[in-house]
Design brief:
- The complex is a heterodimer of chains A (about 120) and B (about 130).
- Chain A has about 120 residues and is mostly helical.
- Chain A has five helices and no strands.
- With about 130 residues, chain B is an all-alpha fold.
- In chain B, α2 packs antiparallel against α4.
- Classes of the chains: A mainly alpha (about 120), B mainly alpha (about 130).
- Chains A and B meet through α1, α2, α3, α4 and α5 of A and α1, α2, α4, α5 and α6 of B.
Chain lengths: ~120, ~130
């Protein structure tokens, strides 16, 4: 059971750092580019997917290793977000910007998968 | 942004991430690891919760809930949901040859989450009828 608690703590520690990083980058992007389009969330999710793909390529699927728990389940899991994406897409839709809502959805999906694949490919060296 | 907001986000994200990890372990134990049910569940639930929180906070901009936004929204919901694992799992399903499942999971997840956020917003309006 001690091992189980250590795992949860590693995930929580990574999640705290990742969440703070996401908050900082989202705020900085909103400040630099305005709030008309959720650039911050898109940027965070794309970069997080790239790093996660790279780690998958380097370490393989290793769900119990401490590094994987801290870095992927914790840090990158907390750094990236779907909830903000959902809310921001809904808000674009409801403010009459259906095009931007659709663009955000397609860009997030394609960029996320492409970045994860690119990260994985880079790790193959 | 104050240092307190960053600390609140960190605390909320730590709790959300730990809960997400627990949900994913429980879902793997119950439903197996062939399909990423755990990630789908946290992303849908977290999106529903953020929709509910945003709608509830917007009705009482100076209420307790609105003041706890960094902890609850950017922190807890942000840490509870995850996009990087969603991307990895889609890639992994495709690499394992489950192309149909990868497409279904990849294309279905995000619209489902936006729909869940909308549902959360509706739920908030149900609880507090418009004045």
């Amino acid at each position: 059971m001690g091992h189980g608690i250590t795992s949860v703590l590693l995930v929580a520690l990574g999640g705290a750092l990742g969440g703070i990083g996401r908050f900082a980058i989202s705020n900085a992007m909103a400040h630099a580019l305005g709030k008309a389009f959720p650039w911050g969330t898109l940027c965070v999710n794309a970069s997080g997917a790239l790093l996660a793909g790279w780690l998958l390529g380097v370490y393989g699927v290793a769900n119990t290793q401490s590094l994987w728990l801290f870095a992927v389940a914790g840090l990158l899991g907390g750094y990236t977000t779907v909830s903000s994406f959902s809310l921001q897409t809904l808000e674009l839709w409801q403010s009459g910007q259906a095009n931007r809502a659709a663009l955000n959805m397609v860009a997030t999906l394609l960029l996320g998968i492409a970045m994860a694949a690119l990260g994985w490919w880079l790790a193959q060296g | 942004m104050s240092i307190n907001a960053y600390l609140a986000v960190g605390l909320g994200s730590a709790m959300g991430s730990a809960l997400r990890y627990s949900v994913s372990l429980a879902s793997m134990a119950m439903l197996g690891s062939h399909f990423p049910w755990g990630t789908l569940l946290v992303n849908v639930l977290g999106s529903c919760l953020i929709g509910w929180l945003a709608a509830t906070a917007s009705r009482a901009p100076h209420g307790k809930l609105a003041r706890q936004q960094p902890l609850l929204v950017a922190g807890f919901c942000g840490g509870f949901t995850t996009f990087s694992l969603f991307s990895l799992e889609t890639l992994h399903l495709a690499q394992q040859g489950s192309l149909g499942l990868a497409l279904l999971y990849g294309i279905g997840s995000l619209p489902l989450c936006v729909f869940a956020a909308w549902m959360g917003e509706r739920l908030a309006f149900l609880n507090q009828p418009a004045a």
